[in-house]
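Subgroup meeting minutes
Present: P.N., E.W., G.H.
Scribe: E.W.

1. P.N. recapped why we're keeping a running log of single-chain structure predictions: easier to compare across weeks, and new members can see raw inputs and outputs side by side.
2. G.H. added today's entry (333 aa).
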Amino acid sequence: MQYLIEKNLYKKSLLSYLLWPLSIKYSLILILRRKLHAGGFRSRCKIISVGNIVSGGSGKTPLTIYLAKYLQNQGKKVAVSHRGYKGKFENENKLISDENKVFEFARDAGDETYLLASKLTGIPVIAGRDRKKSIQILEGKYPDLEYIILDDSFQHLKVQHDLDFVVFNSIGGIGNGFVLPAGILREPLSALKYADYIVFNGKGEIPEKFQKYNKQILKGEYKIKQFSDVNGKEIKLGGKLALLSGIGLPQSFENTIYEAGLHFDKHFRFPDHYDFKKKGVIKQISVDVKLGNINYLLTTEKDYAKLQFIENDLPLAIVEVEFILDNIDQLKM
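Output recorded in log:
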């Protein structure tokens, strides 16, 4: 299945060309939508949007964490809004952490939302798809709030953005260049004219297609901070390794491991935001790990946000990473 997806969405194929007329119609709808929503709610805070125009992983949440900490270190009052995708509060709008702690119910807010709350000490995080309502809740609770970062909101046009960051991953790029359903683009590349910064996540040269929009391009990549056990203590890896992930671009995780000079025997790959509570999944992974004599099963922080609340006997090692911008001097917020 994964091969078929990559063949038709990341490379031009007979199927992608057959779907191309639908992509054209969809693109026109999206262009019209942007024109019709040229306005929206204006917050008293400075609104920073972090998003993308591709489906699948690109690095939005790591960049959100980076920007939130960057502002915090400058002494700014900042909060973060996340949709809470596949979480309990997606349709409720609920503060899951404040300046002092992460609330107990945050585990039900979705993997990325929980990750944001656990990584951003001292920064309030709210879940809910209604971004206007989330902003109003934050404004009411924190009168001195200066910045609100909206994670995954480039297509959310009901709220006015002061700055838009659009993230691309060097592995997935723009796929075959077609808009859904023929490709991975959520909008035509022309939507980049509405961005303030284009963020290129990964190694390699920045594609010329991005440069023609005359936008400031920031470049960065993941750096491994440490490998931790389930108690948060740093560990030194040894023996046979395997990977476990349910993310948008599993190859990105693999590349991060390779760049650390490590090799693995197997990668247990699942779809993005995968529910590991599904019957028999953890048990089967455990059996495979034992049969393969795996010493450590490396997983992402995003996946561990779910796995830590599921009973298991997996030899987990959490790969703690941080996103670093190479040309931070070009960032003006």
